[in-house]
Amino acid sequence: MQVPSMAEMMMNGETPDILFWVGCAGSFDQRAQKITKAFATILNKVGLKYAILGKEEACTGDPARRAGNEFLFQMMAYNNIQILNGYGIKKIVTTCPHCFNILKNEYPELGGTYEVIHHTTLLQQLINEGKIKMKEGGTFKGKRITYHDSCYLGRANGVYEAPRAVLEALDVELVEMKRCRSKGLCCGAGGAQMFKEEEKGTTRINLERTNEALELSPNVIAAACPFCNTMVTDGVKNSEKENEVAVLDIAEMIAASME
Amino acid sequence: MHLIQEVAFIILAVVAIWLFSKKVKEIRRNILLGRDEAFNDHPDKRWRNLLLLAFGQKKMFRNPLVAVMHFVVYAGFIIINAEVLEIVLDGLLGKHRLFAEPLGGLYIFLINAFEVLAFGVLSACAIFLVRRNILKLRRFISKDLNGWPRSDANYILITEIVLMTLFLTMNAADTLLQQRGYSHYAEVNTGNFAISSFIQPLLSGLNSESLEAIERTCWWLHIAGIFAFLNYLPYSKHLHILLAFPNAYYARLEPEGKMKNMPEIQKEVLYAMQPELAPTGEAAAQEEHKKFGAKDVFDLSWRNLLDAYSCTECGRCSAACPANLTGKELSPRKIMMNTRDRLEEVGKNIDKNGQFVDDNKALLRDYITEEELRACTSCNACVEECPVSISPLEIILQMRRYLVMEESNAPQEWNSMFSNTENNFAPWKFAPDERDKWVDEMKG
Lengths: 259, 444
What we know:
The structure holds 2 protein chains of 2 kinds. Chain A is of the alpha/beta class. The relative contact order of chain A is 0.15. Chain A contains 11 helices and 8 strands. Chain A is globular. Chain A folds into 2 domains: 6-123, Rossmann fold (3-Layer(aba) Sandwich), CATH 3.40.50.1860; 134-257, Rossmann fold, CATH 3.40.50. Chain A has helices spanning 6-11, 24-28, 30-46, 62-67, 70-86, 97-106, 119-128, 161-169, 205-214, 226-238, 250-257; strands at 18-21, 50-51, 91-94, 115-118, 144-147, 173-174, 220-223, 246-249. By secondary structure, chain B is an all-alpha fold. Chain B has 2 domains: 2-31 and 63-237; 263-428, Fumarate Reductase Iron-sulfur Protein, Chain B, domain 2, CATH 1.10.1060. In chain B, 65% of the residues lie in helices and 0% in strands. In chain B, α2 (43-55) packs antiparallel against α10 (240-249), α5 (105-133) packs antiparallel against α7 and α13 (302-310) packs across α16. The longest helix of chain B has 33 residues, at 148-180. The chains are: A alpha/beta, B mainly alpha.
């Protein structure tokens, strides 16, 4: 399967309809790479004209900015915007809510204005347009699934329904945790916490959150963020439930259920 | 006798209002110690927020039962204060129930409605006292509130109960005196009222002189209580009943996820990338250095300082904070209380010295520790929960900026993340060339 890069497209005199911003987790983290591959597979199957930046992509600067290093953030943003504007990018889809938030909300002030959507929103659109067709008796049909809201998708940008609509399309039994949607509890990774030890406390945030999900005895905990995925996966392992409960990105669930 | 009461009333009113306006000016001055920031775009959306969030208390309804009780106390407080207008005019003019005659039936209806509301306020405040002191909800027993803040909350509830009881007792004595045709009370005949009629049996055994004394005492304590309450507000968390309105008007309209830009750093980076744009010689010397991020209240925006004064210490933020829930030191409510406390301290310093004299203290470390700042996941739960549009997160992030950019103070792991980002273009130490390795793996 081919994943076209912007440079290749440019050489062939083509312009993609949408740029797939992969993100650092999606590019390097072994677990998140599977999400990236699943999403790329979906894009290929539906025949969407897309491209990635490949080696030209660099960190958006989100963790640096949230940790307080504005210099570094501005440098990363400056370089990324040069590249994006150089290719004349208009529309971006990303599988990471942190990249989504920063590209959508924080790049415009620095001269990078694009239409940015999260992959769950794009998946919802593709389902509604009939471009994604599900297999009969799909893998997740009737399975008990709870969705963990990512802070940077939910509260930060008000995207609560798209991921749920996609899950509904899979004919699953969707069960909600008490802390869901705008009351959703963080997985513990945001604000650059992913890159340091947690401060001293009585328990870890990812355990608090995962236990809440496990109380519902789900077959799958669905996530829409590579960092949430890592945190909740660790939480499930901590409870030694990794053989009963899967932690999956919504894109992986769709990729596994498509015709 | 009437004249003495009139004069006493006028003196009381003038002193109370003078003291209050003096304090208001002080608070305004303190808020404006913060950095300038524009918050006047989209007036239509801002008025809408004022109506929905402040008048309508929209966010409170995330917990409907508590919201209804709070709404009764709030509506009761505002509406019953319409009755204060009559009380004030009666006090100024030496009249008794000035509006009874011109309003006629409507007056009777209004006073009955006030009485029902007063009873509602009284009951809700009693339930709130129980929630705070007997049921001991987590956000109320938190150590954030140890000492004065906890007493403050209880004083307010008790004061409201007392004020409402005075109002109802006054009406009970008054209506009894009317029916007995005693003195000037006979001039109006309002009949019995909905709630105070239940207090009448307790008073009906007393002679008319004692009843008059009770009526007058209740009247005086009620109005004096209101004036005292007005002057208590600026020292209390209860200031939110006034500042919730400007705070809703100046609510942040951007998506919660958007972090405030720093144009000064943007410029520096631009000069680094394109040195030909950098100012040279005199122009460069004129560019003043503004501290990066926030170490003290002066470095925050006036908007953050208004937030601090608007906070009613309800703790919904901390109850939703993932760090606080898991036993970390961070409590968004404490961030707001600390900011207000430090600002008050700075204000007193200015009052004493005419201008701020360095006291070798700052918001950072003397009030808010690095550990608290480092525990935040920037999840926006605190921002989402706040009923009066406060952002503790903005303060936390500004202080993190100070730590990293002015003090180069970051945990070792963050420093590694910074250098990876800078050198490898990813927060982890991976070879940039492997960024699209997954593409090759898909070709198989």
